[in-house]
């Protein structure tokens, strides 16, 4: 196991523990972006966990804001706040709401949850940085279901027109949304072709492969003067078989005693063992 | 030289940019109509046209705000508020960003653009954004002052602007106060409160009524939120009749503000409101529309004449 792989497992363990404690959550879409988050925060993002508002930092916008837990698990494992805080997901008075809020959580750059808005905000940040002649990056993650929202495409047109080359957008193409498969709700047709024709330098990769993600980001960073997009082919619930195979895994409940609770606990134990082995 | 409101606004923005390069003016493909093209000519880097994409305009403004820019965004009042409302609410307000929203040709000022471009509810909508501010200047001087004053305040602020209006009543360097009513004219019998274009109707009506021996006081409510409760309550005390007139629905605007205050202070008084009753817009010239919706000076006069000597309800 290399460092990246280990890191991802640690983040995944934190994420699953969060959902177990909370009793429910947007587990499918949170799991499908963990590898991306691992790569971004391990290798590509400039930040200071003790100074989340560092003016020269890279920005991260989780436009698919309902996967706040994935971001929190990542931030905690990179020192933005105490891991113990993760137990407070969605509790009364929490600073960890399921839809991320920049006013509540250190390390969260933008409030998101009403789908289709974060991407436009990310475009605005990138445009501002360009005006300021900065070299910082903005990374934005969208869901493929989120692309149903027309405002995403307004933002894409803007990004492409202004060639915001320090903004890299990631589409988590896990091919599912709340009510079913994306192709059954609103057929996306060829997402790759779509993004290309919208003016994006587009890479479609295996979103379940840490190395491929890293390589793709490195590649796009080498190119100037064009909008950039990485389509991650992922599995909703990636890494946790019972979630991957669940009929509906957008949002799941883990009530003490029910089958999902037991399966989730087992999964956490498995991860715990794996990580322990590695240490020895 | 008389200038219109949109030019006054553009000039104010240009003055602001000269002092602060964080000011950025954003239009949604209406630069020629709003005259923000003047801003572009003067300071191209401080100007951005996002195309006919109002929701994205607000999102981009939110992003710019996160980098410390001070965005002024523009579109037709209907599209700058109603159309992109969730963006204003969430990416703007909930995320505590800083956006000044200029909504032009509100209410009946939409004239020939008609019902699709008319909004009678923009003030209501913008008042409902928690911690927002809502303004409706009546002349070119007040509009310019507001534009400049808002640059120092962080939050979601909305300002109604009537593009081609050249009305000017305040002296050039007049200083106003956010959250304060302007006493435009003193009077004894009637309190007439209005804002924006309606001030012109109020003045016309008041001048004619003076000839009949009716003394009308005019309060300029350009600052709708925050609203000057104290001054309003003081000024209604000795009056026989209170009239409000607005180029907006009777729901959620000036009338709503007044009713809430009268109730709060347990004031039982002779009060009548002019405004848009539940309906959509239509095309017409300004005079036609003002008459049609009964918010013109004649309607104000009639309501005053009919109600001045009535007992309180």
What keywords describe this structure?
heterodimer; A: 280 residues; alpha/beta; five-stranded parallel beta sheet; two-stranded antiparallel ribbon; 11 helices; 9 strands; B: 313 residues; seven-stranded mixed beta sheet; five-stranded mixed beta sheet; 13 helices; 12 strands; 20% strand; globular
Structural summary, described in words:
The complex is a heterodimer of chains A (280) and B (313). By secondary structure, chain A is of the alpha/beta class. In chain A, 43% of the residues lie in helices and 14% in strands. Chain A has helices at 3-22, 27-31, 34-44, 68-77, 118-131, 150-161, 182-185, 191-197, 210-221, 241-244, 259-279, and strands at 24-25, 59-62, 138-143, 167-173, 176-177, 180-181, 200-206, 227-233, 252-253. In chain A, a hairpin with a 2-residue loop joins strand 5 (176-177) and strand 6. The longest helix of chain A is centred in the C-terminal third of the chain and has 21 residues, at 259-279. The model of chain A has no long low-confidence stretch (mean pLDDT 97). Chain B has 313 residues and is an alpha/beta fold. In chain B, 39% of the residues lie in helices and 20% in strands. Chain B has 13 helices and twelve strands. In chain B, strand 8, helix 9 (198-211) and strand 9 form a beta-alpha-beta unit. The longest helix of chain B has 15 residues, at 5-19. Chain B is globular.
The gist of it:
Chain A contains eleven helices and nine strands. With 280 residues, chain A is of the alpha/beta class.
Architecture blueprint of SSEs:
The complex is a heterodimer of chains A (280) and B (313).
Chain A: H1 3-22, E1 24-25, H2 27-31, H3 34-44, E2 59-62, H4 68-77, H5 118-131, E3 138-143, H6 150-161, E4 167-173, E5 176-177, E6 180-181, H7 182-185, H8 191-197, E7 200-206, H9 210-221, E8 227-233, H10 241-244, E9 252-253, H11 259-279
Parallel strand pairs in A: 2-3, 3-4, 4-8, 7-8
Antiparallel strand pairs in A: 1-9, 5-6
Helix pairs in contact in A: 1-3, 1-4, 1-11, 3-4, 3-9, 5-6
Chain B: H1 5-19, E1 23-27, H2 31-34, H3 36-42, E2 47-49, H4 54-66, E3 70-76, H5 77-81, H6 85-94, E4 99-104, H7 122-127, E5 133-135, H8 140-150, E6 156-161, E7 182-185, E8 190-194, H9 198-211, E9 216-220, E10 223-225, H10 229-236, E11 241-249, H11 254-264, E12 271-276, H12 286-292, H13 297-307
Parallel strand pairs in B: 1-2, 1-3, 3-4, 4-6, 5-6, 8-9, 8-11, 11-12
Antiparallel strand pairs in B: 5-10, 7-9
